[in-house]
Amino acid sequence: MSGERLDGLSVRDVRVSFDGFTAVDGVSLEVPAGDIRFLIGPNGAGKTTLVDAITGLVRATGSVRFGDEELLGRPVHRISRLGIGRTFQTSTVFEELSVLQNLDIAAGARRSWATLARRRRGVPDEVAAALETIGLAERAAHLAGTLAHGQKQWLEIGMLLVQDARLLLLDEPVAGMSHEERDATGVLLETVSRDRTVVVIEHDMDFLRRFARSVTVLHAGRVLSEGTVAQVQADPRVQEVYLGHPVDAGSARTGLEA
Amino acid sequence: MTAVTPAPPSTAVRPAPAGAVPPGRPAGRSRLRTLAGFAFGAAVLFAVAPLVLSDFRLALLAKYLCVAMVAVGIGIAWGRGGMLTLGQGVFFGLGGYAMAMHLKLADAGPGGMPDFMQLYGQLDELPLWWRPFASPWFALPATVLLPMAVAFGLGSLVFRRRVRGAYFAILSQALAAAMVILLIGQQGTTGGTNGLTDIKGFFGYDLDDPVNQRMVYFIIAGTLLALLALTRQLIHSRYGELLVAVRDGEERVRFLGYDPASVKLVAYVVAAGMAGLAGALFVPAVGIISPALIGIVPSIEFVIGVAVGGRASLLGPVLGAVAVAWARTALSERFPGTWTYLQGLLFVVVVAFLPGGLASLWALARRRDVAAQPLRRGRLSLGRRRAERTEVPAA
């Protein structure tokens, strides 16, 4: 239903400062097409700020390319139209509209004013497909505000799918979810990554171990470590950052060592 | 590890929700109800009101219906779009003055000047900017297009800079104040505090004749119904859904690839056009347009009517505007001086206890009805819970 072509994300030397405080300090990373990349790091590491920079919410220097397109310097809605979609830590579905209306709006950024002036008749194909993918077909006519927390997150992801986002930037998608919902979300991510590139900010290490294809660890605005889950877990610098001292004790608190 | 899909397996075989309309509102029945509603409204406005109301009361109703047109626009901009516009008087005034200028010039005859200009204007000839209004082909479209153009200019500046909430409200109110100051300051060409008064004719018809007053009333009633039909289409269109989305999550909409500024701009410009049209029709109905009718106080009164009626509904703003305007007349006839306090009290009570306005009473009552059928609802949700349980095998 989407993704005519699969593109990767290339971040080069991105810096973001707020009034002298440097939140992202020269981050470079390559996310190959079709990857499920997890961004982890302690609070204040700059994960969300980096996503803000990629999506145009904050001003940044450096270069962010998705496929052949440079993203930095464009307004938010233009970046979105290039196929970059994101979710937020708090769910931001339109609670006063139905599930179907939410998806229909997400699908419609390229609609002409003439189309907008008319009523929606029936369900657009991509919306119907997304309803199936996220498992909310039965609840299509319900107000989004009545959904359970996990369902709202799925609706958010569904909105990215119909938006035809080819790069999904998900900010803590499984926070507050039950185990079953986490599993379902992970499977959903695997499904959608078949023809899309996915970047996930997440604190849940169990979720990361199961579904990450690659991991980037940020610390104090810089890339600390990068690689597969196993490589990152074995990196002593990562353990130091998470535990505050070099490797010795059990790192059960972070769950980084399985 | 077996994969668990978020979709309950059963959904795969179930057909996609047909029609996908809000629950309990099949499209056909809703359309029929709307038609019936419009027919009822037309019957009341065109048959019942002229029969039961005296000429005096009918003229008052014509005035209220003009206020209701402004209210319909505010319902779109504020109720659906979240833009609390406290300056609709500006657009009402632009439409009103455009119409009044034309009627004054028509009263004065070809080459003549409006009476007030000779009185205190000491002008030898018509000011340049009055001249185009001599032609109805310019003046009539201008009553709507002029306010829309001003709203477009202002909105383009304001929405792109992401001015919203209280800041937008204050800005729009300041605009109303500025317009009044401008009009009063230019007494020689605008009539100053008095405004444009003593309008006698309306495209060749004598406005003192009750028959012609009745005709003006019918034009106003018909226009209001047409605006309601337009608004209904707008609310139910994809744009209408998008507008609500912008109201509730402007940032989110931006991340979906829309420019919320242009979405808001359309609603604001439409509301301004409606206010302009209302102002234009107000002039023949009442025979005057003046700064006191378009300043801050009337601008706020427009909004109070909308809030009382229910800003997000289609009919709420109309009923609220008419009810408040009627109450104002009725109460100030009996207890002069208390109306202002009552109006303030009414506003506070509605905002505090009934944020959806009177229109939400209907919905509240219906929800009670539904809640009174626990059996049906219970079974539905039970069924769903069971489906959820089967969907997730223990991981």
Automatic annotation (TrEMBL), chain A:
<keyword id="KW-0813">Transport</keyword>
<keyword id="KW-0067">ATP-binding</keyword>
<dbReference type="GO" id="GO:0005524">
    <property type="term" value="F:ATP binding"/>
</dbReference>
<feature type="domain" description="ABC transporter">
    <location>
        <begin position="9"/>
        <end position="245"/>
    </location>
</feature>
<dbReference type="InterPro" id="IPR027417">
    <property type="entry name" value="P-loop_NTPase"/>
</dbReference>
<dbReference type="Pfam" id="PF12399">
    <property type="entry name" value="BCA_ABC_TP_C"/>
</dbReference>
<keyword id="KW-0547">Nucleotide-binding</keyword>
<protein>
    <submittedName>
        <fullName>Urea ABC transporter ATP-binding protein UrtD</fullName>
    </submittedName>
</protein>
<dbReference type="InterPro" id="IPR003593">
    <property type="entry name" value="AAA+_ATPase"/>
</dbReference>
<dbReference type="InterPro" id="IPR032823">
    <property type="entry name" value="BCA_ABC_TP_C"/>
</dbReference>
<dbReference type="Pfam" id="PF00005">
    <property type="entry name" value="ABC_tran"/>
</dbReference>
<dbReference type="InterPro" id="IPR017781">
    <property type="entry name" value="ABC_transptr_urea_ATP-bd_UrtD"/>
</dbReference>
<dbReference type="InterPro" id="IPR051120">
    <property type="entry name" value="ABC_AA/LPS_Transport"/>
</dbReference>
<dbReference type="InterPro" id="IPR003439">
    <property type="entry name" value="ABC_transporter-like_ATP-bd"/>
</dbReference>
TrEMBL record, chain B:
<feature type="compositionally biased region" description="Low complexity">
    <location>
        <begin position="12"/>
        <end position="25"/>
    </location>
</feature>
<feature type="transmembrane region" description="Helical">
    <location>
        <begin position="137"/>
        <end position="159"/>
    </location>
</feature>
<keyword id="KW-0472">Membrane</keyword>
<feature type="transmembrane region" description="Helical">
    <location>
        <begin position="35"/>
        <end position="53"/>
    </location>
</feature>
<feature type="region of interest" description="Disordered">
    <location>
        <begin position="1"/>
        <end position="25"/>
    </location>
</feature>
<feature type="transmembrane region" description="Helical">
    <location>
        <begin position="215"/>
        <end position="235"/>
    </location>
</feature>
<protein>
    <submittedName>
        <fullName>Urea ABC transporter permease subunit UrtC</fullName>
    </submittedName>
</protein>
<feature type="transmembrane region" description="Helical">
    <location>
        <begin position="265"/>
        <end position="290"/>
    </location>
</feature>
<dbReference type="Pfam" id="PF02653">
    <property type="entry name" value="BPD_transp_2"/>
</dbReference>
<keyword id="KW-0812">Transmembrane</keyword>
<feature type="transmembrane region" description="Helical">
    <location>
        <begin position="59"/>
        <end position="78"/>
    </location>
</feature>
<dbReference type="InterPro" id="IPR001851">
    <property type="entry name" value="ABC_transp_permease"/>
</dbReference>
<keyword id="KW-1133">Transmembrane helix</keyword>
<feature type="transmembrane region" description="Helical">
    <location>
        <begin position="166"/>
        <end position="185"/>
    </location>
</feature>
<keyword id="KW-1003">Cell membrane</keyword>
<feature type="transmembrane region" description="Helical">
    <location>
        <begin position="339"/>
        <end position="365"/>
    </location>
</feature>
<dbReference type="InterPro" id="IPR043428">
    <property type="entry name" value="LivM-like"/>
</dbReference>
<dbReference type="InterPro" id="IPR017778">
    <property type="entry name" value="ABC_transptr_urea_perm_UrtC"/>
</dbReference>
<feature type="transmembrane region" description="Helical">
    <location>
        <begin position="302"/>
        <end position="327"/>
    </location>
</feature>
